[in-house]
Amino acid sequence: QVQLVESGGGLVQAGGSLRLSCAASVRPFSNDVMGWFRQAAGKEREFVAAITWGGGSTNYADSVKGRFTISRDNAKNMVYLQMNSLKPEDTAVYYCAADYRAGGRISVHLREYDYWGQGTQVTVSS
Q: Which of 6, 51, 64, 93 is most exposed, with minimal Cβ within 10 Å?
């Protein structure tokens, strides 16, 4: 059974930084994709960032480009999201997700991701 557990959320002032972590209960699969999504109150869940197995390819939502960085450490079964220059509109529950059928292609669609964590709250105050 695959489990994803996020950590690192919290309350931060605008302009600050946070680093989210996602621990996977299984070793990564070759050509898998790991992603981060977020859901603000009253809004739909949206894509934030994703990374391929080898880390050679990443994709970011336009709203976070240049501020967020996704990375992974396959030896530790970990995925990270470094968030800098945070804005109040980044406030949301952040979810880690795994696409084990990706074949090395990054999707921004929720339906392509097989497993999800429980989420971690990020709140950015103005």
A: 93
